[in-house]
Amino acid sequence: MQITAAQPQDWGQIEGSSTGIPVLRPKAQNAQAGLGSLVLTVVELVRQLMEAQVVRRMEAGRLTEAEIERAGQSLQTMRDQILTICDLLEIDPNDLNLDLGELGRLLPKEGAYYPDQPSQDGSLLELLDRLITTGIVVDGEIDIGLAQLDLIHARLKLVLVSDAKLI
User: For residue 92, what are the domain limits?
Assistant: First the structure.
């Protein structure tokens, strides 16, 4: 997927570009919220990943009652802040759950995913949660730029695990 800056004439839903690569574009009614919406989407994805890890550790008996309480309060506060910012930017919180085409949705439907339980509709969140729990090493390169200029080239080695002792 390629994310490009949208021009006013381009605003709309996810559509194909002339190269056939899907391009994410903000909705016309709230174009200024485009970057805010993208940031909130990433924050909500991370929040739900952390929530899944808290559930896993809680069920494994690896958290104290005080840790469970703190984690629950923090996750709820984070959720409330996301909803407040959505309201300020006039973003429908349901719009944070992107449809990724053949990959499915970014986030599961409310109540549709529980860690270590099978789910009907796969989501990127479910995949990431399972990969983090299992542990995965991602090795690759990325080019970052704008205006069709590659400005930063990075070689990455990313280790995703739910327990730092596994590294």
Answer: 2-109+118-166
